[in-house]
């Protein structure tokens, strides 16, 4: 069985869409539904289950919060580090120590059990880096949390355990019997998954032109053309 595993933001959904509008286009959603009859489809995203569940009904494996939580068929997995080292509680305490400006959107990423696995600090509406962000990130790193920033992007993520989307590929192969894996992504946090995939597909948009130099990709596709590429290459 072959699998197609997709990042979400910037790959299936526009990178700059507000949360309430962050859906695949109708054309892409239709193509994905068709592909689900031929391939095992999955999502590997920094978002949590509560965000993804209605946006990817065709997905048979969900890699959530950058691989810290995985739902695959009847299997449910949570990264051991989250539980053993109490980092979820540490992130919860740290998050509520900082009052953010009104222009900052703080997205809490929670597990199915509502455990805090990560937060995203989005300051696109601020125009510049908000006051206190540097201090918050310094404290996060001192507390053993994982900070992930993205070149040229006005947002940053903090995780309770080591983020690694390649866990989704490992689970798909070991538990679901998947063979060849196509991975579609757009940013630095996709690199571990790209490295384990058999076919690497970079999806380009206005914020990630530098990614073409990060790895050797099998295919490079513009975001607006992804549905046509999928139809031409995989649904022929």
Characterization of the model:
This protein has 236 residues and is an alpha/beta fold. 27% of the residues lie in helices and 25% in strands. It contains eight helices and twelve strands. The chain folds into two domains: 148 residues, 3-Layer(aba) Sandwich (Rossmann fold), CATH 3.40.50; 79 residues. An eight-stranded mixed sheet has the order 5-4-3-2-1-10-11-12. Strands 6-7-9-8 form a four-stranded antiparallel sheet, with helices on one face. The longest helix is centred in the C-terminal third of the chain and has 11 residues.
Features:
hydrolase activity, four-stranded antiparallel beta sheet, Rossmann fold, alpha/beta, 236 residues
Would you spell out the secondary-structure blueprint of this structure?
Layout: E1 3-6, H1 26-35, E2 40-44, H2 49-52, E3 61-64, E4 69-72, E5 75-78, H3 80-84, H4 87-95, E6 105-110, E7 116-122, H5 133-142, E8 146-149, E9 155-159, H6 166-176, E10 181-185, H7 191-196, E11 199-204, E12 219-222, H8 226-234
Parallel strand pairs: 1-2, 1-10, 2-3, 10-11, 11-12
Antiparallel strand pairs: 3-4, 4-5, 6-7, 7-9, 8-9
Helix pairs in contact: 1-8
Basic shape: globular
Helix share, percent: 25-40%
Name of the CATH superfamily of the largest domain: HAD superfamily/HAD-like
CATH class of the largest domain: Alpha Beta
What can be said about the biggest beta sheet? 8 strands, mixed
Count of domains = 2
In the predicted model, the low-confidence regions spanning at least 5 consecutive residues are none
* Backbone CA Rg: 17 Å
- How many β strands by DSSP? 12
Overall pLDDT level: 92
Q: Within the CATH hierarchy, at the fold level, what is the topology of the largest domain?
A: Rossmann fold
Ends distance: 17 Å
Number of helices: 8
Content of β-strand: 15-25%
Broad structural category: alpha/beta
Q: Give the strand line-up of the largest sheet.
A: 5-4-3-2-1-10-11-12
- CATH arch. level architecture of the largest domain: 3-Layer(aba) Sandwich
Q: Order of SSEs, N→C?
A: EHEHEEEHHEEHEEHEHEEH
């Amino acid at each position: 069985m072959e699998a197609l595993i997709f990042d979400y933001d910037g790959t299936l959904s526009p990178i700059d869409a507000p949360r309430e509008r962050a859906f695949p286009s109708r054309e892409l959603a239709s193509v994905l539904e068709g592909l689900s009859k031929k391939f095992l489809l999955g999502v590997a995203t920094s978002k949590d289950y509560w965000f993804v569940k209605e946006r990817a009904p065709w997905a048979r494996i969900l890699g959530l919060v950058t691989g810290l939580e995985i739902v695959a068929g009847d299997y449910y997995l949570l990264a051991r580090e989250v539980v053993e080292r109490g980092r979820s509680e540490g992130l919860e305490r740290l998050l509520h120590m900082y009052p953010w400006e009104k222009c900052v959107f703080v997205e809490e990423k929670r597990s199915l059990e509502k455990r805090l696995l990560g937060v995203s600090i989005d300051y696109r509406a601020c125009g510049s880096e908000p006051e206190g962000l540097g201090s918050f990130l310094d404290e996060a790193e001192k507390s053993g949390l994982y900070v992930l920033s993205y070149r040229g992007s006005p947002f940053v993520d903090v995780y309770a355990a080591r983020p690694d989307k390649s866990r989704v590929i490992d689970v798909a192969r070991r538990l679901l019997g998947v063979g060849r894996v196509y991975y579609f992504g757009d940013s630095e946090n996709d690199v571990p998954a790209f490295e384990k995939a058999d076919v690497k597909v970079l999806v380009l948009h206005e914020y990630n032109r530098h990614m073409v130099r990060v790895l050797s990709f099998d295919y490079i596709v513009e975001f607006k053309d992804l549905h046509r590429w999928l139809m031409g290459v995989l649904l022929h």
